[in-house]
Amino acid sequence: MSKISSFPSLDRLPPPARAAFLLDFDGTLVDIAPTPESVVVAPGLLDTLRRLRDKCGDALAVISGRPIEQIDHFLGDVPYAVAGEHGIAIRHAPGQAIERSALPPVPAAWFEQADRLAQAHPGVRIERKKAGLVLHYRGAPDAGPMLGRIADEWVATTGGVFHVQAAKMAWEIRPAGVDKGHAVEALMQAAPFAGRAPVFVGDDVTDEDGIRMAVQLGGIGLRIPVDFPDPATFRAWLAHLAQGGNDAWGG
Ligand SMILES: O=P(O)(O)OC[C@H]1O[C@H](O[C@H]2O[C@H](CO)[C@@H](O)[C@H](O)[C@H]2O)[C@H](O)[C@@H](O)[C@@H]1O
């Protein structure tokens, strides 16, 4: 199988024996959907990821803003490692316990107020995480600016303990101090990732921390829509890598 010449990023890709794949989930492996639960794992994706993991000596991880349990729900045991909640939770290997950074809990009053906001504004959805809270407005775009102002007011009372992250049609309230870059750094310290060049692929602002760390550790960062126009094209690229011989890779 020959190299896909329409993907210039392939030329910067380390060979399979040296690569570690660190992949974002929403907007990267799967298309953005109307709600967090309604994302669809495309036919063939799990098989592609399994083959790629095999090719890279197991060095394949998913690094998501979602809780690890949700990634398990969609991808099962296919990734070797999973980092969730933007790096706050990490499972380094299949079957291992999830390690969590010690961070302050979200004030209960925010959850209560957020639930009231969702009731008052049809289409607004609240996503609760162990160490965070997402105000989704994809179903009520007009409510976006109002929700952003409220989220800013809440975090302003915490003296920097929490911050508001602009996400895709959502405001995510997260504890400061841990990001996807920390997850990349932690995973790259141990087998099967250690000694390889990280290849981080993402689509969102929070992925920039992961990309920065991947580059700092001697790897590369690829971004949708800069390097691939959309998740479907990225999946096709992954499938090409997974199915092809070493000549499918650049470099
Ligand atoms: O780091 P990621 O894996 O990219 O996760 C980021 C957030 O993704 C989810 O929300 C986004 O995707 C939803 C499904 O496509 C979409 O409905 C929503 O509008 C997006 O904001 C997820 O719900 C969050 O928990 C993740 O942090």
How do the strands and helices of this protein lay out in sequence?
Layout: E1 19-23, H1 45-55, E2 60-63, H2 68-75, E3 81-84, E4 89-91, E5 99-100, H3 108-120, E6 125-129, E7 132-136, H4 144-156, E8 162-167, E9 170-175, H5 180-187, E10 197-202, H6 207-216, E11 220-223, H7 231-243
Parallel strand pairs: 1-2, 1-10, 2-3, 10-11
Antiparallel strand pairs: 3-4, 4-5, 6-7, 7-9, 8-9
This protein binds ligand L263DTV3.
The ligand O=P(O)(O)OC[C@H]1O[C@H](O[C@H]2O[C@H](CO)[C@@H](O)[C@H](O)[C@H]2O)[C@H](O)[C@@H](O)[C@@H]1O is lined by residues 24-27, 32-36, 39, 64-66, 127, 134, 136, 138, 167-170, 172, 204, 206.
EC number: 3.1.3.12
GO molecular function: metal ion binding; trehalose-phosphatase activity
Organism: Komagataeibacter melaceti
Architecture overview:
- The protein is α/β, with parallel strands linked by helices and 251 residues long.
- The protein folds into 2 domains: 8-100 and 178-248, HAD superfamily/HAD-like (Rossmann fold), CATH 3.40.50.1000; 108-175, Trehalose-6-phosphate phosphatase related protein, domain 2 (Alpha-Beta Plaits).
- Helices cover 30% and strands 20% of the residues.
- The chain is built from 7 helices and 11 strands.
- The strands form 2 sheets. It has a 7-stranded mixed beta sheet, sandwiched between helices. Strands 6-7-9-8 form a 4-stranded antiparallel beta sheet, with helices on one face.
- α6 (207-216) links the parallel β10 and β11 (220-223).
- 43% of the residues are buried.
- The model is unreliable at 1-5 (pLDDT under 50).
